[in-house]
Amino acid sequence: MPAEIELKLALDHAAISRLPALLRDPALTAVKRGRGRTTHLVSTYFDTADLRLAREGVVLRMRRDGARWLQAVKGPPLGAAGAGLQARNEYEAPVDGPSLDPAQFAATPWRKLLLKAHRRDELQAQFTTDFERREIPLVFSDGSFASLAVDVGSIRAPGRRPARIAEIEIELEAGDPVRLFELGQTLAAQWPLTVTLLNKAERGFALVQGRRDDWYRPAHAGAIVLSRDTDAAQALAAIARECLHQIAANAAGLLADDDPEWVHQMRIGSRRLRSCFALAAPYISAHRLDPMIAQARTLAATLGAARDWDVFAQETLPPLASWFARDDATAPGLKRLRSRVEPLRRAALRDARDAVRSPRFTALLLSAGALAATPRLGAARPAD
Asked: Which of 33, 181, 250, 338 is 20 to 30 A distant from 95 in Cα terms?
């Protein structure tokens, strides 16, 4: 099936204001093939009133690209997704106008779902994306082909405030997905870019449901399904992708919300990733793995401190304070203790947020993501 494989990086305000310079970055000019182009893209996303397609992981989109109309159907995330890499099966074809063409549904694995909704006249426009795309074709030294697109615009849903689109998509056309991570690492080292896990469709459906932010609940460790013929390297790569997903999926919530569960789940993900690195060490050269181990250790320590203060302040101290509050002699001391604990807890949370905002965090996600995207974990045989 035709798979769409891409790496997404979010742009901040500073990067948007310097887009011309970013697009002239030496890392891009070195792999650029042919001329770039700028287009204005407007897309409408369809679903049933109860968002049945979205619940099944299916996306139905109608896009206007200049004078052309393109209808696309995308499926749920594939096993290669994770660690910032997004992979979905996509069926896109030109149509005569803005109306949905049900004949194209038959060419997809989700024909029954789509045709049933169409026959019942249940498919409705849910939201629209409207953005300018600057696109550059790329070719890497190993012959891999890709394209880099910078999208800036908005997502609009009826009755909701628009959400901003400001992102880079590096999409693989043919070759090795590791090249996407390598280019992302190089760009992120020079520009304020961060890994983003949600695509435009996921953000649009969140907006329809009244959630303006990219996050809405902490992400727990997901199930890892391995086939019988999966070898050790492939299994470790799958585990690493899931660990990285748990870390990255909780990052936005940690930055924007005070719920201690964000820190807790990020800490779990970072500890799992360190264990995965330890298991993978015999298969990977030290000069490649050691920097990632150091970054993961530093992140885990920072998150661990924040988690320890959360547990002490919100779980350990309250019952003790309730018990000793009965004693007039100890009550003032406990009050002073609680007043001192809270600033320390807030300081530890600030440290955790600073760690997530740092370029080192983005570097960890991209370097480990490149490792997890490598079919054989980057080595032909175990190290001696």
From this structure: 33
Q: Which residue has the tokens 């890497």?
A: 140
CB half-sphere exposure, 334, CA atoms < 13 A: 17
The answer to whether 28 and 136 are in contact (CB under 8 A) is yes
Q: How many CB atoms lie within 10 A of CB 316?
A: 13
Residue with token string 């585990």:
239
Residue appearing with tokens 């600057």: 134
Q: What is the pTM of this model?
A: 0.87
Question: Are the CB atoms for 2 and 28 separated by under 8 Å?
Answer: no
SS3 content of the chain, % helix, strand, coil (to 5): 50, 25, 30
Q: Quick one: which of 102, 101, 114 has its CA closest to 75?
A: 114
In this structure, what are the phi and psi dihedrals at residue 82, rounded to the nearest 5 degrees? 115, 165
For residue range 246-289, list pLDDT tens digits in order: 999 999 899 988 999 999 999 999 999 999 999 989 888 999 99
